[in-house]
Amino acid sequence: MNPAFKRLIIAGLVLLIAVVVIEMFAYDVFKISWVTFMEIQPAFQPMVQPLPVATDALPVEGAAYNQLVGVPSNPVPSDATSTARGAELFSLNCAVCHGKSGKGDGPVASHLKNKPYDLTSFPIQSFTDGGIFFIISTGVPGKMPALNENLTVRERWDVVNFVRTLK
Ligand code: HEC
Question: What's residue 72's pLDDT?
Fold first, then answer.
């Protein structure tokens, strides 16, 4: 065989192997966690609870989480607009567990180990608006999910105003 041709084949093979190895990195067959500047900072991973807000910080939407300020008072008047919005948000976010009319008889209630509360009567109706707001925001660990990511602050107050109409 012509030695030049032989060298060409060897060079071709070497090139092919190099490309395969590089592609293995490109397609994550070998994973390398490259250092990037985005990574060198405090961050939380998907599906992980957001970092707690500093105790001396006030969120722009009002005292939604601040433990120092205490339970916030309801800034949203309970008018027809608010309760109508609240009713719709309640049917989307709460009714699966608490039932359409808040009696704690939603379609998934029978499958839950901890039964959702009847929101229409004592003790829930004796809570302050801010108390109900906090429960919606933070949930009840292991029993009810925190809905702060599903509902904006304003939407939570609309739900609170609607829950008040259930009694
Ligand atoms: C996944 C089901 C589920 C969803 C969705 C849900 N809840 Fe609950 N909720 C529960 C359960 C279970 C409890 C009872 C917790 C306990 O036993 O302390 C509860 C308790 C409550 C309480 C009383 C908390 C306490 O411990 O005193 C309030 C108020 C309440 N829910 C309001 C709401 C509102 C308003 C929504 C919608 C924005 C909502 N919940 C959505 C399951 C749910």
Answer: 81
The answer to whether the Cα torsion of 53, 57, 61, 65 is positive or negative is positive
Q: How confident is the model at residue 92 (pLDDT cuts 50, 70, 90)?
A: very high
Which residues, including other chains, have CB under 8 Å from residue 96's CB and lie 6 or more apart? 106, 107, 108
Nearest atom within ligand 1 for CA of residue 151: 38
User: What is the Cα–Cα distance from 73 to 28, expressed in whole angstroms?
Assistant: 52
- Which residue CA neighbors atom 19 of ligand 1 most closely? 116
The pLDDT score that the predictor gives to residue 8 is: 95
Whole-number Å distance, alpha carbon 116 to ligand 1 midpoint, is: 5
Tokens standing for residue 114 = 């901890």
CATH H-level superfamily of 80-164: Cytochrome c-like domain (1.10.760.10)
